[in-house]
Design goal:
Elements lengths: L1 H10 L3 H6 L9 H130 L2 H21 L1
Length: 183
């Protein structure tokens, strides 16, 4: 190290340098110190700086590649989601249309069932009316028959005498006896 400093100190002994007024004292001269330091840094730090810049470049390139892969994956997922959305919309429309047709079919079935029930109720009503009418007609017939029988008995009782009464009984007994022998 002494040799290097001696060579710079030796510059101070140059007559040309002394006449210009350059300060050749290495410790006092800032410009020379800066140039030397920069030169040393450039020579020694060149490799380190290149390594740092290369590492930074590799990280940036890796980040770019990763972001490109992520972008492609995101685009693929977006396309898949769009396809699923379209499929879901088609299914929703299909369900909606099927739902409308199901609702319409159910509505028609309910209307048909209501008409069938109404027709059945109408038939039941008609049957009940017919039955009640027949019942009323039978009641009227029975009353008319009872009244007719009572009048006939009243007429018979008033017009029959005992002799006619005995003769009618004997005739009826004779008819019943003839029927009894035939059986």
């Amino acid at each position: 190290m002494k040799n290097v400093t001696d060579s710079f100190v030796f510059l101070g002994h140059w007559p040309f340098a002394a006449s210009i007024g350059i300060n050749t004292d290495i410790l006092a001269t800032n410009l020379i110190n800066l140039i030397v330091e920069i030169g040393v840094l450039v020579i020694i730090g060149k490799g380190v700086l290149n390594d740092l810049l290369d590492n930074r470049k590799q990280r940036i390139l890796s980040t770019l590649r990763n972001s490109e892969e992520l972008r492609k994956a995101a685009i693929e997922q977006l396309e898949k989601a769009r396809v699923r959305l379209q499929k879901a919309e088609l299914e929703a429309n299909e369900y909606r249309m099927n739902g409308y047709s199901d609702i319409e079919r159910d509505k028609q079935n309910l209307i048909k069932t209501a008409y069938e029930d109404l027709e059945r109720f109408e038939n039941n009503k008609n049957e009940i009316l017919y039955f009640e009418q027949e019942k009323a007609i039978n009641q009227v017939r029975q009353r008319v028959l009872q009244q007719a029988l009572q009048r006939a008995l009243g007429t018979l009782n008033s017009s029959l005498n005992i002799e006619l009464h005995y003769r009618t009984i004997r005739t009826n007994i004779g008819i019943l006896g003839a029927i009894e022998w035939q059986i």
